[in-house]
Write a structure and sequence with these properties.
Elements lengths: L9 E4 L1 H11 L1 H17 L10 E4 L4 E8 L3 E9 L13 E7 L5 E6 L1 H19 L6 E5 L5 H12 L3 E5 L3 H10 L6 E4 L3 H5 L4 E4 L6 E5 L9 E4 L8 E3 L1 H5 L1 E5 L2 H7 L12 E2 H5 L12 E5 L4 H18 L3 E3 L11 H16 L2
Parallel strand pairs: 1-6, 7-8, 7-10, 8-9, 10-12, 11-13, 12-16, 14-15, 14-16
Antiparallel strand pairs: 1-17, 2-3, 3-4, 4-5, 5-6
Helix pairs in contact: 1-2, 2-3, 2-4, 2-10, 3-4, 3-10
Bound molecules: nicotinamide-adenine-dinucleotide (NAD).
Length: 356
């Protein structure tokens, strides 16, 4: 059901309105509700058009387009990844996206997606952990305390029950900021001096570092039996976070193998290295965690359906909240084929106004 009856006016969610939307719903509730949309869309995985995202790489980063469709709605996200940006006061990741009506091809929603990406990434990670993390996991290490980190922490609290956080970043100011922002939200937080200290006693390890190289954030000896790894930061060719030996003894779960084999941790492995698709676990077609000692790895890279779910969720909130602007995005001549005539009528109006 369209939010607005007039298809020529496109609702636009600005950064300000997105913040107000998230705050009016509450961050935890937003993440919980969003996760139900993400899970529902994973369950109907086979109805989606799927393609690895279209990436344009440069020396300093990447710009990507992430399209998908379920036959009724079409969505895409534009997103960049530029680790050097934070040095000049900019975000590593920024994004915006569109949801459209497949029947007419008309856009139904245009939205900021920098905040929404952090929320959908965290919600997807937490959904995966619900199926893969050890029972009663309540302690999580977060290595890389940048823009994604607080969202990850809150999603894991809301959906998995994480209460203890062990934070580490090569930049102590990042850890300080993350710990400060999460104060009063019900966490027991420890800022750690090394990643080794952070992973000690953690049931879940989240890696969310940004570096345009094959880094080794975790070595094999840092991962004990039964741990669940939520590897978020390795999401581009030549950009990984885990030592290969960890992959050899983990059960690996991925979003869309065709994309993850190019961009995820498994780019380090042969093309036929066994992986399980997360949607199959969610749909009950494959087993997630099988045993107490099993090391599970969610090799997250972010897939188009998650953005589609996020756009669907925020669109469903608009009628009740009114937190959008009407965007004059689509040309709407009185007679559909008279596009040039519309330009001429505008010119006449401008001349009339100028002669007053
Ligand atoms: N999988 C997904 O769906 C998804 C979604 C969004 C972002 N990402 C990726 O997640 C990563 C983090 O994103 P962000 O927006 O938080 O970036 P960010 O630049 O805001 O934060 C990254 C943090 O990692 C820290 N870091 C870098 N190298 C480190 C190391 N060796 N040890 C510990 N800390 C280190 C940096 O100091 C920084 O604080 C990026 O690589 C991004 O591309 C993935």
């Amino acid at each position: 059901m369209p939010v607005l009856p007039n298809l020529n006016i496109v609702p636009f969610i600005s950064v300000e309105n997105m913040m107000d939307l998230v705050l009016s719903i509450g961050v935890e509730t937003f993440l919980k509700e969003l996760s139900t949309y993400i899970e529902a869309d994973f369950r109907r995985w086979e109805t989606f058009d799927k393609v690895p995202r279209i990436a344009s790489h440069s020396r300093e980063g990447v710009i990507e387009l992430m399209p998908t469709s379920d036959g009724t709605l079409y969505g895409f996200k534009y997103v960049n990844g530029h680790p050097k940006n934070t040095r000049s006061g900019r975000q590593t990741v920024t994004a915006f996206g569109v949801l459209s009506d497949v029947d007419s091809g008309y856009p139904l929603l245009f939205s900021e997606m920098t905040i929404l990406t952090a929320l959908r990434t965290a919600a997807t990670s937490a959904v995966a952990a619900k199926y893969l993390a050890p029972e009663n996991a309540d302690c999580m290490a977060i290595i890389g305390n940048g823009a994604q980190s607080e969202f990850q922490a809150i999603a894991f609290k809301a959906l998995v029950g994480v209460r203890k956080l062990r934070l580490y970043d090569i930049d102590p100011h990042a850890t300080e900021r993350c710990a400060h922002n999460l104060q009063g939200l019900g966490f027991d937080i420890r800022a750690c001096a090394s990643s080794e200290e952070a992973v000690e006693g953690a049931h879940i390890i989240t890696t969310a570092t940004a570096d345009k190289q094959n880094a080794t954030i975790l070595t094999d000896n840092m991962v004990g039996p039964g741990v669940h790894i939520n590897a978020v930061g390795g999401d581009c060719p030549g950009k990984t976070e885990l030592h290969r030996d960890i992959l050899l003894r983990s059960d690996i779960f991925v979003e869309y193998p065709q994309q993850t084999r190019i961009e995820g941790e498994i780019q380090q492995m042969p093309a036929d290295h066994p992986v399980t698709e997360l949607w199959q676990v969610i749909a009950g077609l494959a087993v997630g965690r099988r045993s107490k000692d099993q090391v599970t790895l969610f090799d997250s890279v972010g897939f188009a359906t998650e953005d589609f779910s996020a756009l669907r969720y925020v669109r469903d909130q608009l009628a009740a909240t009114g937190l959008y602007e009407n965007l004059d995005l689509l040309a709407d001549p009185d007679e559909p084929r008279d596009l040039f005539g519309m330009l001429l009528r505008r010119q006449a109006l401008r001349e009339q106004l100028a002669s007053r």
